[in-house]
Amino acid sequence: MALDSKIPQGPIASKWADYKNKINLVNPANKRNIDVIIVGTGLAGGSAAATLAELGYNVKAFCFQDSPRRAHSIAAQGGINAAKNYQGDGDSVHRLFYDTVKGGDYRAREANVHRLAEVSANIIDQCVAQGVPLAREYGGLLDNRSFGGTLVSRTFYAKGQTGQQLLLGAYSAMNRQIGRGKIKMYNRHEMLDLVVVDGKARGIIARNLVTGEIQRHSAHAVVIASGGYGNVFFLSTNAMGSNVTAAWKIHKKGAYFANPCYTQIHPTCIPVSGDHQSKLTLMSESLRNDGRIWVPKKIEDVQAIREGRLKPTQIAEEDRDYYLERRYPSFGNLVPRDVASRAAKERCDAGYGVNKTGEAVYLDFASAIERYGKEQARIKHLDENDSQLVQKLGKEVIANKYGNLFQMYEKIVDDNPYETPMMIYPAVHYTMGGIWVDYNLMTTVEGCYSIGEANFSDHGANRLGASALMQGLADGYFVLPYTIGDYLSKDIRTGEISTDLPEFEEAEKNVRSQIERLSNNNGTHSVDYFHKKLGKIMWDKVGMARNAKGLTEAMDEIAALREEFYKDVKVPGDINGFNQELEKALRVADFLELGELFAKDALHRNESCGGHFREEYQTEEGEAQRDDKNFAYVAAWEYKGNPREAELHKEDLTFENVKLVQRSYK
């Protein structure tokens, strides 16, 4: 079945404006009679809740954290993209659009990406008006820095805590509406099922995580803004609570799941230190502006470093392999994330990894410290040949730009990154795949929307750095409020949706049944035991590099693990109260289904593109080799009772404004 993406007709530059001119509207007096449920209160959900409530809708917002401020959006460090061209370096809406399509390895929908680029500038204005403390230059203008996959500086930032500051802006807008009574906030509640009445999403079943109470909540539309599914790998940069449950529940009720194999491996993470770890820590991609990535050229130097006989600072410049600068001279250390990640893996697989596990490379700021130090010495009319002074001045500049990131690294690793290079290695970070949505951000379930990282729409097979915050806020502030209004205009006479309908009763019964099944299991292994086993299968066979043999084995192993989970998982405690093991069990049950679909999707896509790298499909130089003739489509999977039986639906991708070429950053 071919999917209808509902893309408006006409030139790409005017599609969004023409669309807004022709949609149906809900007048202010009718908006107060319409309810909207929003699941997730990160940047996408928080901005959507605030905007819809400001427009007059009654919003019910749900988050499993104790406050919307705890959403994982706070972990985004480096910045947010926008086509403002403050630097005067040639940026434009078209260039942001082009970079995003190219960065996604030509696997994104053109119309959505262009809309994202168009509204990006509005996001910055909105956030400045809210008081978000974005960095400024000496002259007072907002500052910008570069990120991977671009040749311009378009990333706005607040030191290394951009996500947190943007989320506080959205949260303040939410708080205003909570105070007015337009947003009813349900903290510590988790959505466990979608309720569909006569083919339309009309509510959810949620569990109060403090009391254990199962609740029915109705609305005229449901919006899923619950983030990504990177924790299917167990170890990832995601918060430990991040999960796929809300997205997976709507998938099982009819929402197609698109491109699950498009998962981003971020190149700049603190390496794994052992089996004791429960999550990984991201070092912002912004560090690649000034940090140079390298490994020793000589294998004997690598051995000496691992054994502690040699320090990286003792290795001469000519004995260092700045491999990204060598392989990709045009973009250097600022190649896109998928390219940088595979390059690091290639060096480590070849034996040049610099930590005890052999899975780490250096991110070195020595050159930047010296460069900035000399520049500051000249500005202040001091002696630029005084090496001690230059070091002091250079470190001050780096501290101003990245200070909290350096502090975080030192606290975790117990190493001073001002004095010795950071060690980094790729780790699972962001998921480009997600729930399939059309141009309106509606899923294949009428009245059910998905926004932010929870949907698949804007990044293709690889997300450029600083585009996650851009998409989340674009969807919440500037896209969904228009598109959902067009849909809700048909509901002005519907009236309140009753939670006594049989569909609510059936959904609640299913939720209770699964909870009782898990709690009465009396198994012998903890939830984490199964989650770690799933993560190992995923990383080893569905990770940075994949092949048909490994993917086939992964599907079988995950199916067997899922069967073992239901037979042997132990969930202690009472189901009628606070029970974190039960919370985890319900989430891992969904990961155990998603993992199999993930591997199935990766197995069916016989090409390499972006974050999906099949070993059988690569160029002689080891780069990703796409197959545009056979795979220039979105793979949207329909649930059929078992992940292995999922049915494939295709949305063909047409490229009228960007020429399909082999991606090159050389």
TrEMBL record:
Instruction: Return one Gene Ontology term, BP aspect.
Output: anaerobic respiration
EC category name: oxidoreductase
- Specify the protein name: succinate dehydrogenase
User: Which reaction is this enzyme known to catalyze?
Assistant: a quinone + succinate = fumarate + a quinol
UniProt entry tagged with the keyword Transferase: no
The entry's active site is R337
Is Cell membrane found in the keyword set? yes
Assigned GO CC terms: plasma membrane
Q: Which organism is it from?
A: Imtechella halotolerans K1
Pfam families recorded: FAD_binding_2, Succ_DH_flav_C
